[in-house]
User: Which sequence fits this backbone?
DNA sequence: CGGCATCCGAATGGATACTG
DNA sequence: CAGTATCCATTCGGATGCCG
């Protein structure tokens, strides 16, 4: 049951790529938002994540989906009702992201 | 003693900026490396973080230092011996970064 | 509402060369 | 060893417009 030896410090390690998707400019906030909402619409995400554009939200969601961290579900055939949720793996990572955010809150008073 | 209400989702919140420095392309790996080494030289960091260039390492260290997460110490007056270490706040955040990396390791087998 | 396509300026970041 | 400076390609990412 031992996992393969991953090493984020090595460029060729798949974990490095995953980390980069997770810690990409909007990836972190998107995962954090999905961890709160558990099932959100595109517009809800855009409103929640201050400053993100349609293009970047769309791109970020695709990357997260391609990496298996997020699922996209269309309610009907049209594109009118689509929502996003975390996969089991996404939840695991998003929980750690939330903890990271909270660690920032904890030190922020000391940083000005 | 309640901390101010921070919100990373808001562009104008200082915690958002801190999070961006922490989760910048090389910031995460630099913090992770410093958490392992506790006191590392420039060259040690560069060798540890595969793929980083002098320029980016230098720039990332400056950002982390400016944010109060890292300290820079020159042994003598020349620039021959300099090392970097985490501040107390840096250690707090770096610990959460390590946890994030480990969460990636945990899910990586399922992601291919 | 939930996108995609295009344009284009701004920022990122690597390579290389150089310095104390 | 620990950077700095310059050049330059790539990428980022916002604005706009269009579509089902």
Assistant:
């Amino acid at each position: 049951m031992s996992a393969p030896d991953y090493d984020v410090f090595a460029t060729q390690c798949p974990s490095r790529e995953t980390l980069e998707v997770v810690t990409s400019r909007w990836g972190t906030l998107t995962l954090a938002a999905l961890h709160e909402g558990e099932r959100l619409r595109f517009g809800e995400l855009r409103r929640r994540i201050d400053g993100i554009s349609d293009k970047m939200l769309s791109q970020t969601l695709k990357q997260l989906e391609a990496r298996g961290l997020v699922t996209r579900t269309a309610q009907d055939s049209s594109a009118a009702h689509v929502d996003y949720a975390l996969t089991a793996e996404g939840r695991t990572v998003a929980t750690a992201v939330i903890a990271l955010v909270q660690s920032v809150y904890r030190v922020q008073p000391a940083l000005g």
Residues 41-43, 46, 54-55, 57-58, 74, 78-82 of chain B lie near DNA strand D (CB under 10 Å from a C1'). Chain B has one domain: 15-105.
